[in-house]
Amino acid sequence: MTATDSPNSSPRSFVSSEVRGLVGVVRLVRPERRNALDRGTAVELTRALEEHLRSDAISAVALLGSSGTFCAGGDLTTLEEAAKTDPVGTLEDFHRLILTIARADKPILAALCGAAAGFGADLALATDLRIASESAFLQESFIHVGLLSDGGGTLFLRELIGPARAFSLLALGQRVAAAELFQLGIVERVVPEDRLEEEALTLAATLGQRAPLAMGALKRTLFGPRRAALEEELRRVREEQIRLLESDDFNEGVRAFLEKRKPNFSGR
User: Fold this and answer.
1) What CA–CA distance (Å, rounded) separates 147 from 73?
2) What is the pairing mode between strands 189-191 and 137-139?
3) Based on the number of CB atoms within 10 Å of its own CB, is 171 exposed (0-12), middle (13-18) or buried (19 or more)?
4) Main-chain phi, psi angles of 248, to 5 degrees
5) 15-193+211-259 maps to which CATH number?
6) What's the whole-model pTM score?
């Protein structure tokens, strides 16, 4: 299935891919939607990452946004319909993206600018290393539309900052600014906006210069238990999320988001 023949996808590409030395650079380019992902773009992004991960010429991957935004999350204008017509398939495509990153033996770095929100937050958290511009923020915003973080955010945050702090971020759905992300250990460093891409590619190149076999062994040893746990976590999340996608609260949450008002949840 291509991005163009996926359900609920747009016919033009929203992902760019290039090679810079040893680094595969993958960039979300959908400025009119703040790099939000529809199902087709999630599939396209997965394929771009897989291409670099298969290449013997690539030793590291950098994942970037564009136009001042990393990724504003899932595109609610299309995902509401996708959730009604094929919720399981839609979730599986998004989960395949997260698992592709989590299972990779090559290091994957994310460069955060502007919003890393909703699924965009989970996408960033799935990578091995993150750096952020001074304007960047992370927001687990699923709760505001009556949903559960469905890209592994529950597991990644529990690992990174502990269950109590993770609950706060997930349940309140508030923005976490770059400086606090650094204090929490979620990002490796914070840099000025105009230096973000340069710093990201330099760091990715440094990772790419390390011995590939040792890097793969390091990742399998360090992240092996998490990889197994992530598959089970996503299975549980998928079951919960399908129920939530069928709820009145989700419909109300999406309507409120699109109408730029506070939702009136009913618990149904």
Assistant:
1) 13
2) unpaired
3) exposed
4) -65, -35
5) 3.90.226.10
6) 0.94
Percent residues over pLDDT 90 in the chain: 91
* Encoded tokens for 57: 């010429």
For 209-232, what is each residue's pLDDT tens digit?
Answer: 999 999 999 999 999 999 999 999
Q: Encoding tokens for residue 56?
A: 């013997």
CA dist., res. 144 & res. 170, Å (int): 10
Which two structure tokens, joined as six digits, stand for 168?
A: 């706060």
Q: How many other C-beta atoms can be found within 10 angstroms of the C-beta atom of residue 73? A: 26
Cα–Cα distance measured from residue 143 to residue 174, given in angstroms and rounded to the nearest whole number: 10
pLDDT digits over 11-48, tens only?
Answer: 568 999 999 999 999 999 999 999 999 999 999 999 99
